[in-house]
């Protein structure tokens, strides 16, 4: 049996399997082997429960980031919308993670040239950032200015 197979056999419960596949997904992501990273991260989503947990949101966010790097904006957006669904149920309304999620959704929409939706989501991110003293508040404002500039030109 290969060392990989031995490790997998030792991961005899869901918690260990989640950790195992999460680490493999992160490692493959670092190596820019995105297809293999996605395989392992998607296995994690099948093991995690409930869907409202923060660890599940983190897994969806990792999948979204990989999809974005691969240029698959539709899947990245779909995954970040899953994160938003979890965030809205589990976090206080002005949590910095919620601002990050709105920013990520807006950024993808901007890349897709869906400027009105992007502006809405980045504005939500900025509103939360202002109330939570988020460190990226100024970056959100710059992105809003960029989107507005593009919309004026069009």
UniProtKB/TrEMBL annotation:
<dbReference type="InterPro" id="IPR011990">
    <property type="entry name" value="TPR-like_helical_dom_sf"/>
</dbReference>
<dbReference type="InterPro" id="IPR019734">
    <property type="entry name" value="TPR_rpt"/>
</dbReference>
<protein>
    <submittedName>
        <fullName>Uncharacterized protein</fullName>
    </submittedName>
</protein>
<dbReference type="Pfam" id="PF13424">
    <property type="entry name" value="TPR_12"/>
</dbReference>
<feature type="repeat" description="TPR">
    <location>
        <begin position="99"/>
        <end position="132"/>
    </location>
</feature>
<keyword id="KW-0802">TPR repeat</keyword>
<keyword id="KW-0677">Repeat</keyword>
<dbReference type="Pfam" id="PF13181">
    <property type="entry name" value="TPR_8"/>
</dbReference>
<feature type="repeat" description="TPR">
    <location>
        <begin position="57"/>
        <end position="90"/>
    </location>
</feature>
